[in-house]
Amino acid sequence: MTEKQNGWSDAESARYRAVGHWEGVTFGARLRRAGTEGGDRAALVDGDRRWTYADLDTEADRVAHGLRGLGVERGDRVVVQLPNCAEFVLVWFGLQRLGAVPVHAMPGHRRREIGHLVRVSGAVACVVPDRHARFDHRELMREVRAEQGPGGSLRTVVVVGDPGSESGFVPFEALRAAPPSVPGRTAPDARPAPGADDGGADSADVALLLLSGGTTGLPKLIPRTHDDYAYNARACAGVCALDERTVYLAVLPVGFNFTFACPGVLGTLMAGGTVVIAPDPSPQTAFALVEREGVTLTSLTPPLVTHWVDEAASGSWDLGSLSVVQVGGARLPEEHARKLGPALGATVQQVFGMAEGLINLTRLDDPEDLVCATQGRPISPDDEILVVDTDGRPVPDGTAGELLTRGPYTLRGYYRADEHNRTAFTPDGYYRTGDVVRRLPTGHLVVVGRIKDQINRGGEKVAAVEVEEQLLTHPAITAAALVGVPDERWGERTVAFVVCDGEAPGVREVAAHLRERGLAGYKSPDEVVRVAGLPLTAVGKIDKAALARASLRP
Fold first, then answer.
1. pLDDT < 50: residue spans in the chain
2. Strand partners, 542
3. What is the pTM of this model?
């Protein structure tokens, strides 16, 4: 059985449908229509491999057929942990064709995170590479399966590459080798039976599960329906003026909400354009693809900006096709924003959004000051925004306060997290983002900071509580506090203040310890500082503001 978890009232749902935000079409059906109408237009490019829209539609059938043979059914959850490769897109649409639910994991996640995602989602399968960035994901999956035990939900691991000899590990190519077949469709050119485009899914069903930043430790799961997520991608595509001539370069991890649907991969495909996969985010790799494929749009995080500006200054690349460069995931310093556009000969677009929903974009015709000094305004006329003080009272424009939001693509509840939902949302359905912003009279938002104890390191969200808990498992550390401090490259870097019994461990030793504990590498502190004790506030809590100030002293 699938889960309908949209949380919107009947009146809201009816209004969003009446104004055309929600179209009542599943992703499986959208691809079927694109495969029929788009025909031989280029849809997806990965190195020398290319798929037209018709090819992509057929591949989705093949993958769906293979997954069904492994016992994956409508409503089943499948964790997808793949690096930037076409297989992510093929698996994603294959799951949509079944009415199954992909759970977007990041390539850097390790045993702790993947095990958590499997447990919370009840995933029946995982899709991983054999090796990526010198890490063996097959060994990771062996550990996850061993931790889960024989009574766990996880039955199958699909491996892109060599699956090895482990029982229950299936090569991805075995799925694609199956004939393209869905109920009522025995050949690629046969008309599918009703419901065959999506396994009988409904547009109000959960279509995918994204990950929160994990402000209280491990990430929460964010349910996105076919209706709301398609609108998310489509509305972003409209603001960015995407059409059949658009060529989008996926530089950041394809599983990120930013890369996938803001407008990203989905928005481009829904507009009839072409998605090009970059295997890594280096400017050399990306610029070569811009030249070769005529890329018009791409998305970056702030740490990449200076590298791209420096490489463009070499004058070795023809970037004439590049029209728009989005920057999001963390706040872009104004001075960097002013350099990026002239360096690449493109329009800069700032993006401030969240996997939970609300997306803000600067407009392509905004004045330079708004583009460089704000993080955009909401993409939908039905995005509802409140900026409130600590007592929940709205503050005037220009005054900093916490951002609350609700609307046609912002969740009304995390997946299977009733207790957390009671505090994450107001009684009337506004999501408490934890972001501190100032709203200008134009509606543009300026991000000031965060209420939540979360560190944004170049777009990667690090939950301080989770890392602190694991630091305390080190035999020499008796107390620990993780804080974020400003950093020109990353936006914020992580500093661990530790109280020790004996000799304090260094950065490398701490990183090795956290890796052994199963944490992703990006969560390891950038700096470890030994202190005699941790300062406390008047109410007895660790004074992280004081620690952050101390870390900035010369």
1. 1, 182-191, 194, 215
2. 536
3. 0.89
Query: How many CB atoms are located within 10 Å of the residue 188 CB?
Result: 15
Contact call for residues 138 and 108 (beta carbons, < 8 A): no
Does residue 190 come out as left (phi exceeding 0), alpha (psi in the -120 to 50 range) or beta? beta
Residue 386: C-alpha distances to residues 144, 381, 406, 445 (Å):
42, 14, 9, 11
Q: What is the pLDDT of residues 34-80, one digit of tens each?
A: 999 988 999 999 999 999 999 999 999 999 999 999 999 999 999 99
Query: What secondary structure letter does DSSP report for 270?
Result: H
User: What secondary structure, in 3-state letters, does 493-514 show?
Assistant: EEEEEEEECCCCCCHHHHHHHH
Tokens of 398: 């220009």
Closest residue by Cα to residue 124 from 98, 168, 155: 155
The pLDDT score that the predictor gives to residue 188 is 39
Which architecture characterizes domain 229-450 according to CATH? 3-Layer(aba) Sandwich (3.40)
pLDDT score recorded for residue 448 = 85
User: Residue type at 191?
Assistant: R
Q: 454-552 in CATH: which number?
A: 3.30.300.30
Q: Are 271 and 241 spatial neighbours (Cβ–Cβ below 8 Å)?
A: no
> What are the φ/ψ torsions at residue 250 (nearest 5 degrees)?
-85, 100
Please tell me if the domain spanning 26-202 has the same topology as the one spanning 229-450.
yes
What kind of architecture, by CATH, is found in domain 26-202?
A: 3-Layer(aba) Sandwich (3.40)
Residue pLDDT, tens place only, 381-417: 999 999 999 899 999 999 999 999 999 999 999 999 9
In three-state secondary structure terms, 435 is: strand
| DSSP one-letter string for 365-400 | TS-HHHHHH---EESSTT-EEEEE-TTS-B--TTS-
First-last CA distance in the chain: 59
* Domain parsing of the chain, residue ranges: 26-202, 229-450, 454-552
Closest to 252 (Cα-Cα) out of 412, 108, 349: 108
> Which pLDDT score is estimated for 2?
54
Alpha-carbon torsion 225, 226, 228, 230, what sign? Answer: positive
**What token pair was written down for 320?**
């004439």
- What pLDDT score was predicted for residue 5? 54
**Do 455 and 496 meet the contact criterion of CB atoms below 8 Å apart?**
no
Distance between CA atoms of 280 and 289, rounded to whole angstroms? 11
Q: Using the Cα atoms of residue 315, residue 317, residue 323 and residue 329 in order, give the sign of their dihedral.
A: negative
| 107 SS3 class | coil
